[in-house]
Amino acid sequence: ELGWISKVYVNRPAVVRHAEQIKKWRTVKGNWQAAWLLKAVTCIDLTTLSGDDTPSNVQRLCFKAKHPIREDLLKALDMHDKGITVGAVCVYPARVSDAVNTLKAAGCNIPVASVAAGFPSGQTPLETKLTEIRLAVEYGAREIDIVISRSLVLTGQWEGLYEEIRLCRAACGEAHMKTILATGELGSLANVYKASMIAMMAG
């Protein structure tokens, strides 16, 4: 039941005010700062999404993913033996096999993520989106990053958006799915909120 979506209201001045306050919060310093930065590295998807990507580009990216911090810096922090890697390597579906094979040969278990579902524009027929997702999973992607059809948001087709995301989730099978909302193209914070809620409800 998505009828409540039309009643959503976002207090933009309050959001802007809160965002300004966040910028003034004090950050951690010293060893705590180093620990937080190292933790942030482990949450990063190291990504190449260029039209001229080649197997060798992806191989270099995978090496960087396994060794994201210089060894001398890790030794200075006594973290050289902690296995610090990035969270994932993200590529287009056509490059997933290259990344999977390179990481396997390097003996590391960094997951490969793949953008799909018509990334970046989302202007792709649904059948094509679902096929692209299934192929990326078949090639070895353990995470799929879909992009929504912004036109469904801008025209208020909330049921259609829900169904599209639900079908994408089903096509992922066992792979983890993230939904890219392209918030700068959704027109309003209310639309961002609605699209976020629908993405979560759709799985």
Descriptive terms for the model:
203 residues; alpha/beta; TIM Barrel; 2 domains; 5-stranded parallel sheet; 9 helices; DeoC; EC 4.1.2.4; deoxyribose-phosphate aldolase activity; DeoC/FbaB/LacD_aldolase
Could you walk me through the main structural features you see in this protein, from its secondary elements to its overall organization?
The chain is an alpha/beta fold and 203 residues long. Strands 1-2-3-4-5 form a five-stranded parallel sheet. The chain has nine helices and five strands, in the order H-H-E-H-H-E-H-E-H-E-H-H-E-H. It has two domains: 31-110, no CATH class; 111-202, TIM Barrel (Alpha-Beta Barrel), CATH 3.20.20. Helix 3 (55-66) crosses helix 5, helix 6 packs parallel to helix 8 and helix 8 packs across helix 9 (189-201). The chain is flat. It holds the Pfam family DeoC. One of its GO terms (cellular component) is cytoplasm.
- Please indicate the count of domains: 2
CATH architecture of the largest domain: Alpha-Beta Barrel
CATH homologous superfamily classification of the largest domain: Aldolase class I
Distance between the termini: 15 Å
Mean pLDDT across the residues is: 93
Rounded to the nearest angstrom, the radius of gyration is 20 Å
Q: What spatial order of strands do you see in the largest sheet?
A: 1-2-3-4-5
Query: What is the number of helices?
Result: 9
Top-tier CATH class of the largest domain: Alpha Beta
The poorly predicted ranges are none
Following the backbone from N to C, one meets helices and strands in this order, namely HHEHHEHEHEHHEH
Number of strands: 5
Shape by Cα distribution: flat
Helix content: 40-55%
- Helix vs. strand class: alpha/beta
The largest pleated sheet is described as: 5 strands, parallel
